[in-house]
Amino acid sequence: MRLKGRDLVELTDYTPEETRFIVETGLEMKRRFYAGERVIPVLPGRTIALIFEKPSTRTRVSFEVAARQLGAGSLYLGWNDLQLARGETLGDTARTLSRYVDGIVARVKEHWKVVELANYSSVPVINGLSDLSHPVQALGDMMTILEKKGRLSGIRLAFVGDGSDNVLNSLIVAASRLGVHIVVASPRELRPNGELLKNALEVSKETGATIEFTEDPREAVKGADVVYTDVWVSMGQEALREERVRLLTPYQVNSKLMSIAGSKAIFMHCLPAKRGEEVTDEVMDGPQSVVWDQAENRLHIQKAVLALLIP
Predict the structure, then answer these.
(1) 232 and 85, same domain (yes or no)
(2) Is residue 3 part of a domain?
(3) Statement to judge: residues 79 and 218 lie in one domain
(4) Is residue 23 located within the same domain as residue 123?
(5) Three-state secondary-structure class, residue 18
(6) Catalytic residues, which ones?
(7) Count of structural domains within the chain
(8) Which of 27, 51, 159, 163 has the highest Cβ tally under 10 A?
(9) Do 33 and 181 fall into the same domain?
(10) What is the pLDDT averaged over residues 76-95?
C-alpha cells in the first residue's frame, strides 16, 4: 500500500485499510527493533522539521528518535524561534520550509494552523497534536491494544472522563476504522467534536464498530477490554480548572472502577497524568496498567508514519 507524500492532518483522510496498515507497520517496526535492527535506514539523507507551539515530552522525543532510527535527521523549531513569532504567515513558513526539509511535524494550539501548514506545504505535514485531535497518539494506542489483546475488531474500549478531549476525538475516528467498540463515559456537557463524530459513525457502518455515550462510568467499563482516561484540564484550559474538576471528579479511574471492568482489562493513559485526579497511583502503577508500553509505542508508530509518508 503506497502512502508516500500524504499528509496526516486527520485520520478522517484515511480509509480503514490504510489505518490498519499503519498500525500493523508500527508493530513490525517494534518487532524489528527488538530483533536487533536499531536503525532501519529507509529515509537516508531526509530531514524532518518539528514545529512546536506547545511544549512536549513524548511527542518531541519520540519523533526525533524515530527520525534517527530511520536514518533521517530532525530539526526542533520552537514557535518563538521562527519568524512566525514576528508575524510571518503560516503559508509563507510552509512554502519556505518545503524547500529545506522533507516533512513537517506540527504541534499547535489551534487546529487551523496545522491545516494551513498542510495547505501550503509541498512536503508531508503530520499533526503532532492540536486542540481538536491527536492522530499519532490514537494510532499508537490502537497499536498497543493490538499488541496486548491480539485483535482490534470487537474490542470494547471504555473512555472515562472528558468527552471533549482531543485524544478522544482521534480515538473515536481510529476506532471506527478498526472495528473497535468505544463507549464514552462523560458529563453531558462534554462531548466529542460533531464533525469527527459524524465521520466516525458513517465509517462504522462499514466496519461494524460502535460508538456509545453514557454518563455512568460504571456502565461504561462493564465488560471493557480497555479502560482509558486523560487529564481533565489540558494545556490552555487552566481557567476552566475549577469547573472541570467539579464535573469530572465522579469519573476518576480508581481500583474500584477497574474492579468492575475485571482483571483482564488493561488501563491506558496518553500521559502526562495528573495523578490523584483522573487516575489514582494504584491504577497507574498497578498490574493492569500498560501506560509505559503505550508511551514506548509512540516511537514505533511514528517510525511507521514517517517511513510510509515521507518520500
Answers:
(1) no
(2) no
(3) no
(4) yes
(5) helix
(6) 107, 134, 137, 230, 270, 298
(7) 2
(8) 159
(9) no
(10) 96
Instruction: Could you list the beta-strand ranges (E) of the chain.
Output: 47-52, 73-78, 103-107, 125-129, 156-160, 181-185, 210-214, 226-229, 266-269
Q: Tell me if 27 is assigned to some domain.
A: yes
What per-residue confidence (pLDDT) applies to 239?
75
CATH number at residue 61: 3.40.50.1370
Average pLDDT value over all residues in the chain: 97
Q: Residue 25 has what pLDDT? A: 98
**103-107/125-129 β-pairing:** parallel
Same domain, 248 and 127: no
The model's confidence at residue 76, banded by pLDDT at 50, 70 and 90, is: very high
Task: Summarize pLDDT for 242-252 with one digit per residue, the tens.
Answer: 899 999 999 99
Verify that 105 and 179 share a domain, yes or no. Answer: no
* Residue 198 sits in the same domain as residue 88: no
For residues 175 and 255, membership in a common domain is answered with yes
What is the tens place of the pLDDT at every residue in 3-52?
999 999 999 999 999 999 999 999 999 999 999 999 999 999 999 999 99
- Structural domain boundaries, residue 35: 11-133+298-309
Burial of 14 (0-12, 13-18, 19+ CB in 10 A): buried
How confident is the model over 217-249, as pLDDT tens digits? 999 999 999 999 999 987 667 778 889 999 999
Burial 48-86 (b: 16+ CB within 10 A, else e): bbbbbbbebebbbebbbebbbbbebbbbebebeebebee
Sign of CA dihedral 268, 272, 277, 281: positive
The SS3 call for residue 240 is helix
Alpha-carbon Rg for the chain, nearest whole angstrom, is: 19
Q: Are 282 and 8 in contact (CB under 8 A)?
A: no
Q: Which three cell numbers stand for residue 145?
A: 491494544
Q: How far is CA 84 from CA 77, 78, 121, 235, 309, in A?
A: 11, 10, 15, 20, 26
